[in-house]
Amino acid sequence: MAASDFPDLPRFPVGLELAEALTVASQQLHEASTRHNTLRTAAKLAVHIMPGAEHAGVSEIERGKKLRTLAWTDEVVRSAEARHTGREPHGRWEQLWHSPVARITDSEADDGWDVLTALGLRSALSLRLRADRRRLTVLTAYARKPGVFDEEATRIGRLFTAHVSIALDSATVREQLTEAMHTRDLIGQATGILMERQGIDAAAAFESLVRASQRENVKLRDIARRIVGIHNST
């Protein structure tokens, strides 16, 4: 990831420079328009903020299921995490259900990390972004040398991921509000169409939508979308 991607950020800042870099990073994260863009920005920023990081990715792990990569800095990360697709998550990732941090000091000496070794990745630092009963969201930084991610790198990584988590929550809320507004508009349009077609008032039209939703076991917005789509195509 080229340093020019974020010209306002020093590479691996320390001291007061770190505080300023985290402020700039926070602004970059909050400017991302969607959850997906927030995760992509976080992966890119990680190689600037986290000492020793050369590559980074964000993955989602469902309990009892497989790992899915959501964002990555480059094809090295995409390849590394894609090779875990179809496998049970490694124990190091499973550790993140109980701890905010998991580290790989040297993939050559750690059983089960032949995937990383084959790609020349020796060190990894995984940091939990989100966790609930079913799902983990994890940011992982990678390096080609062993023993890169020490306690100081972990501390800085946790400071950075705290900002990422806040930005991710904000992006999620924005998306939910946008979807809610879109849904409200769809239902309003569908209600208007039914009022015009059936000569009924708004309350009766809305009740008709609700009954159709319950009868077909389909979400109200999907019933509304169908009615609006049919109306617009005629």
Could you write a compact summary of the structure shown?
With 234 residues, the protein is an alpha+beta fold.
Commentary on this structure:
The chain is of the alpha+beta class and 234 residues long. The chain is 54% helix and 15% strand. The chain is built from eight helices and five strands, in the order H-H-E-E-H-H-E-H-E-E-H-H-H. The protein has helices at 15-31, 35-49, 75-82, 91-94, 114-118, 151-198, 202-216, 220-233; strands spanning 55-62, 67-72, 101-104, 123-131, 135-143. It has a five-stranded antiparallel β-sheet, with helices on both faces. Helix 1 (15-31) runs antiparallel to helix 2 (35-49) and helix 7 crosses helix 8 (220-233). The longest helix has 48 residues, at 151-198. The protein is elongated and about 75 Å long. The model has no long low-confidence stretch (mean pLDDT 87).
- Shape annotation: elongated
Largest sheet: 5 strands, antiparallel
Helix content: 40-55%
State the end-to-end distance: 50 Å
Strands of the widest sheet, in order across it, are 2-1-5-4-3
Keyword list:
elongated; 234 residues; 15% strand; 5 strands; five-stranded antiparallel sheet
